UniProtKB/TrEMBL annotation, chain A:
GO cellular component: plasma membrane
Keywords per UniProt: ATP-binding, Cell cycle, Cell division, Nucleotide-binding
One of the protein's GO biological processes: cell division
Family classification: Belongs to the ABC transporter superfamily.
Organism: Candidatus Wildermuthbacteria bacterium RIFCSPHIGHO2_12_FULL_40_12
Domain spans labelled ABC transporter: 2-232
Domain of life: Bacteria
GO MF entries: ATP binding; ATP hydrolysis activity; transmembrane transporter activity
The UniProt record lists the keyword ATP-binding: yes
Protein's recorded name: Cell division ATP-binding protein FtsE
InterPro entries in the cross-refs: AAA+_ATPase (IPR003593), ABC_transporter-like_ATP-bd (IPR003439), ABC_transporter-like_CS (IPR017871), ABC_transpr_LolD-like (IPR015854), P-loop_NTPase (IPR027417)
UniProtKB/TrEMBL annotation, chain B:
GO biological process, one term: cell division
Recorded family membership: Belongs to the ABC-4 integral membrane protein family. FtsX subfamily.
Sequence intervals crossing the membrane: 20-42, 174-194, 225-251, 272-295
Species of provenance: Candidatus Wildermuthbacteria bacterium RIFCSPHIGHO2_12_FULL_40_12
Protein name: Cell division protein FtsX
Pfam families: FtsX, FtsX_ECD
Membrane-protein topology: Multi-pass membrane protein
First-listed, main subcellular location of the protein, grouped into a coarse class: membrane
Length: 232, 301
């Protein structure tokens, strides 16, 4: 379903003073349908870069990235939205719109995809309930805690039932209670067949999952194990 | 689909009112362009009308001596009618001439009274119309070389051609000036509208980046900016139409006197919907073109 093939990403040295940075170094792996994969690694190991390459937000310096058999970076720009609609993303930096409420931030993904008003007003409250934010639906991002915002982002990533959910550090701001709730939710979604990719540096949750773990170090894939553990 | 259209227009409207100052400026300048173009269109109608009126009037009046018999006059009339340049010859007898004279001065007792004293002082006449304003010379030279020359008291040679030429020249000048000014205004309008949309794109840049990442199509992103341009155009057109109507109705009575009885408001009303359609088209066209240019420059796809 999803394949990185000898993928290398070097960020350009186009800023004054900064030098070229190898974020991913010849990384190859494949994720099949129904899998739940954790991607672990220290800060700066290249986890978010994987996501950016998958969404065609950045181009690989070398190698290729496939989604459902298609080379992501060969898709013409005006058509990329088809790919992105199939991937629900929990962005590490949230990417919530400050001028929209929690409800609107979620609803608007459905608007983008052309859902009808009735579907939107039916689905959004439901998803807000799932992430435990029914009472925050009219709050703006600035009025929410880090964990609340994170849960809005999770709700936004899953509302349109994408084929893949890429959760980039989705529990970084959550307390243990909400962390385990979100993990239960992700596992539940995975049970319905959605591929989950979980990028995190939370050792405990990875070890409790007992699912496949891919370990990155300085942009290199150093370990890829079924029922893996967080070892660094 | 309808939901999407409604949302697009709504977002466009929000963009529009968010920077109200520049939006008002945009409407104003597009409106001015529309106003000028409408004036040009109306002016063309007025000029056509005036030229028509003048051409309809008698070109040459041949006054005959009052001793000439009617038969002789009719023979001359037939001869003149045979000149290829002549479109029409009309015989006005003394009695008819008097009737017309009385009709014209019926509100002037002094003239009517003195008329009663002198009897009918008028001469029979042949009114000659040429096909074209520049063909009088042919008629005049025919008369001069004609044996009937002796029958003629005097020839009143109405010089219409210079008047028509002047109107044509003035219209052409106004038109050329108007077109140049319209073009200049249109360019300024596009620049201002372009800036309006550019600002909106700039304000929405964060939202656009996120929209892209969650799978918005290009047209979904562009839609509101196109709508914003169109909204500016519609407001400008409605505003221009309104102000134009008011101006026409205030000025029309004065201009009617000036333009030999032409009712400008009549011309305007009879063409109102066509004009309004053109106004809308120009407004929306300018707004949308500006949006497209702004998006080409500032909204990478
Ligand atoms: N746009 C960029 N330009 C230059 N360098 C970048 C850019 N984005 C990321 N990097 C560098 O690439 C490396 C990998 O970054 P990445 O964001 O993938 O790390 P990460 O594993 O997600 O880290 P974290 O756990 O802190 O989120 C880092 O060293 C980072 O500084
Ligand atoms: Mg990261």
């Amino acid at each position: 379903m999803l394949k990185f093939q000898n993928t290398t990403k070097i960020y350009d040295k186009n800023h004054i003073g900064s030098i070229a940075k190898v974020a991913l170094d010849n990384v190859s792996f494949e994720v099949n349908k129904k899998e739940f994969v954790s991607v672990v690694g220290k800060s700066g190991a290249g986890k978010t870069t994987l996501l950016k390459l998958l969404l065609a937000e950045e181009k690989p310096t070398k190698g290729r990235v496939f989604f459902d058999g298609q080379d992501v970076h060969k898709i013409a720009k005006p058509s990329i939205f088809h790919l992105r609609r199939r991937i629900g993303t929990v962005f590490q930096d949230y990417k919530l719109l400050p001028t929209k409420t929690a409800y609107e931030n979620i609803a608007y993904v459905l608007e983008v995809m052309g859902y009808e008003d009735e579907e939107i007003s039916r689905d959004v409250p439901e998803v807000l309930k799932i992430v435990g934010l029914s009472d925050k639906s009219h709050s703006f991002p600035a009025e929410m805690s880090g964990g609340e915002k994170q849960r809005v982002v999770i709700a936004r990533a899953l509302i349109h039932r994408p084929d893949v959910i890429f959760a980039d550090e989705p529990t970084g701001n959550l307390d243990p209670y909400h962390t385990s709730e979100i993990l239960k939710l992700l596992l539940n979604i995975n049970n319905f067949g959605t591929i989950i990719i979980l990028a995190t540096h939370n050792k405990e949750i990875v070890n409790n999952l007992k699912r496949r773990v891919i370990t990155l170090e300085n942009g290199k894939l150093i370990r890829d194990e079924e029922k893996g553990r967080f070892v660094l | 689909m309808l939901t999407l259209l409604k949302k697009t227009i709504k977002t466009g409207w929000l963009n529009f009112i968010r920077n109200s100052a520049i939006s008002i400026a945009t409407c104003f300048i597009i409106g001015m362009t529309i106003f000028l173009i409408t004036s040009l269109l109306i002016m063309k109608d007025v000029a056509d009308y005036l030229i028509n009126v003048i051409q309809e009037k008698v070109d040459i009046s041949i006054y005959l001596k009052d001793t000439v018999a009617e038969e002789e006059i009719l023979v001359l009339k037939d001869e003149i009618a045979k000149i290829p340049e002549v479109k029409e010859v009309q015989y006005v007898s003394r009695a008819e001439a008097l009737d017309r004279f009385v009709e014209r001065y019926k509100n002037n007792p002094v003239v009517i009274e003195s008329l009663a004293e002198v009897g009918n002082p008028l001469l029979p006449a042949l009114n000659v119309k040429a096909w074209q304003a520049n063909q009088y010379d042919a008629v005049v030279s025919f008369l001069e070389n004609s044996p009937s020359k002796d029958l003629i008291d005097k020839v009143d040679y109405h010089e219409r051609k210079p008047v028509i030429d002047r109107i044509s020249a003035m219209t052409a000048t106004f038109n050329a000036l108007g077109i140049i000014m319209s073009l200049v205004l249109a360019i300024v309008a596009i620049l201002v509208a372009f800036n309006q949309v550019r600002l909106a794109i700039y304000n929405a840049r964060e939202e656009i980046a996120i929209q892209r990442l969650v799978g918005a199509s290009n047209w979904f992103i562009r839609g509101p900016f196109l709508a914003q341009g169109a909204i500016s155009g519609v407001f400008a057109a409605v505003g221009a139409a309104l102000i134009f109507s008011i101006a026409i109705f205030i000025l029309s009575p004065k201009l009617t006197v000036l333009f030999s009885g032409l009712s400008i408001s009549g011309v305007f009303l009879s063409k109102f919907w066509l004009l309004f359609f053109i106004q809308l088209l120009v407004g929306i066209g300018l707004g949308v073109v500006s949006s497209i240019i702004a998006m080409k420059k500032h909204l990478e796809v």
